[in-house]
Amino acid sequence: MPWKHKKGTGPAVKKDLTRLKTPHTYAIIFFVVLACWILTFIIPAGKFSTHTIEYTDANGETATRTVLMADTFRYSYGLNTDFVADALADIRENPSQMEEVGVDAEALDALLETDSSQWTQKDLDAAGISDDEMYSLYGEGFYDTSKKLHKTANVWGTDDFGGFGFLNYVFEGLVSGDRSGSAVGICALILVVGGAFGIIMKTGAIDAGIYAFIKKTKGLERLALPLLFILFSLGGATFGMAEECIPFAMIMVPFVIALGYDSIVAVTVTYVASQVGNAASWMSPFSVAVAQGIAGVPVLSGATFRLVMWIVVTLAAAGFMMVYAERIRKNPQKSVVYAGDAYFRERMDAVTEEERAFNLGHKLILLEMLAVLIWIIWGVTQRGFYIPEIASQFFVMGFAAGVTAIIFKLNGMTINGMASAFQGGVSDLAGTAVVVGMAKGILLVLGGSEANVPSTLNTILYGIGRVLEGVPSFIGAWFMYIFQSLFNLVVTSNSGQAALTMPIMAPLSDLVGVPRQIAVLAYQLGAGFVDAFTPVSASLIGVLGVARIEWGKWAKFQIKMQAFFFILGTVIIAIAVAVNFQ
Length: 582
Known about the structure:
Blueprint lengths: L24 H18 L3 E2 L2 E7 L5 E7 L5 E2 L2 E2 L1 H12 L2 H7 L3 H8 L8 H6 L4 H8 L4 E2 L24 H6 L9 H20 L1 H13 L6 H16 L5 H14 L4 H17 L8 H8 L7 H28 L11 H8 L3 H4 L3 H24 L3 H22 L6 H31 L10 H12 L5 H15 L6 H19 L3 H15 L7 H10 L3 H28 L4
Antiparallel strand pairs: 1-4, 2-3, 5-6
């Protein structure tokens, strides 16, 4: 007889794995932090000695950079106190060596009177004798090499009470760095920009401008996307555009969604485009110039190869974006951020015909915004403006827009309305600022990115260098590219990555038989492309926050684009090796 289901039961429903809920960005970062913490139990800490080098920068001026010395790696060890006691006694009796080391005689005498069996490096530091100085004099002889030490954070605590605990990664990440860098500077920039654009959005100028643009272009608006992609790529190639994309994204997200696309396209046409330009740059002072200077390659050499590379990569990436964009335009529900983009769609739909009128006040605000953006680009490229100056300029832009709105009575703007709009804009991006601090916490748990401070990260860097020794030239160059891509998942500062990796990768390229120019090429491709993906990138997280995209949903799209970039990078490396790119 035919099979009958029991009452209340039915055939098993096949689970749609494509509809699994994406983990929250906070959850993703927490588990990455946890994995890195576990890694520090497995991999011992290591360090390098550092020195200052001089090189000619992109402006033809002499610049300096503190970099590691590749042949000075050693694991973290305790002191061989008997050896150290004898060595310090010999130094005390040798005036010329005392002067060379720069040790304080009274401090050394006081140290020599204490129990040497209890000495640590902190005691030597107090006497003016650093670990690097002892290593330069005695190699590893002054260490107790019987046990490699690990630098593992406690479960909880602070530097002042019990030592840094990995469960404090949020606070420690937020307060790390300085006003001109990640994380505290980027967090402050995000909040100020959010407040400024809160005022601007309240004026209605951007909404009115978008409607006016769509009405005037009459179907030609699709040409705007590839043109904007090329423009932002040029910004990344020429002056390392990154943090500057955050405020641009605040304009582009509603604009691109109004054209029928999604917020992923908006982030791609701004931030991703800038990192494509950075990856293929022929003149960026923050990546190519620094890496070439450290590697001992003439600064801005190989520009013809790189310029052709920039054109090809930019056009190919723009084409990749347009394929995705057109698929979303034809069927918006296919977007993984369709539900999240409802915020922008509903806000645009709520604008009345009267509010869509593009009047003089709106035009003045948009012109003022354009003037400030030009001012920022000029300041960054000509005067060296960075995070504090950019934040100040955007605050001025928001304030001026608010005053203009009051004068022209736009959306009933008042002084209190300006303050409330600023507060609302700050509130909208507060969660994004927290993510920036969390992401920085990953690096802190690994021991930091200082080459002369023992860390798990330094040991990983050294280990990769050793693995690549003696491999065929193309394989060596290709693995350099892979390594730089993976390293960028943790260290996203272009100049910082150059300072850490190029002193090892440049001589390594000599050993595998490829020009140092290719080692620089592998660095810039890896560092640039992956910046559009890594959750550690403060700039990316800032742009995603503006677009209201969770990193997990962004990764679903970007992992495909990263595969595309990786293929492009591999082909470029192969061509560079084939033509012996110098």
